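Hi P.,

Sorry for the delay on this. The queue was packed all week, but I finally got your sequence through. Input first:
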Amino acid sequence: MTSRRVVATGTFDILHPGHLYYLTESKKLGDELFVIVARDANVKHKPRPIVPEEQRRSMIAALKPVDHAILGDQIDMFRPIEEIHPDIITIGFNQYFDEENLRRQLAERGLHAEVVRIGKYADGDLASSRLIVQRIIGARGGGDQRSG
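Then the structure:
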């Protein structure tokens, strides 16, 4: 019997409950969850990640729903997908992918994974890296406050 492979992707900067929800819901769709963590150089649709890519990958790898965590390809975002050959690719509720365009691009490369958009985490006040950063700046100010 072949296992059902699911791929989830993201930047995963400043881990929060929304990330865990996305990955937990993704894992429910199959037997094996592969997570592709965006490379620092490839994050162009939002501010650069605060946490370096290898640290982000390591944090994702430690999460219970995750079976495999890898860094994305710096040139071709579909290369890891071709290597994994998933049955399902999940995208988060706020990821910028156009689902139909993604399906078309996958088909052009001979990949026929189902594309599933995972819904929003219900308790969303601190389920966004952007909102967490805003809260920190608001609470601590923009200055360099070195305390552990």
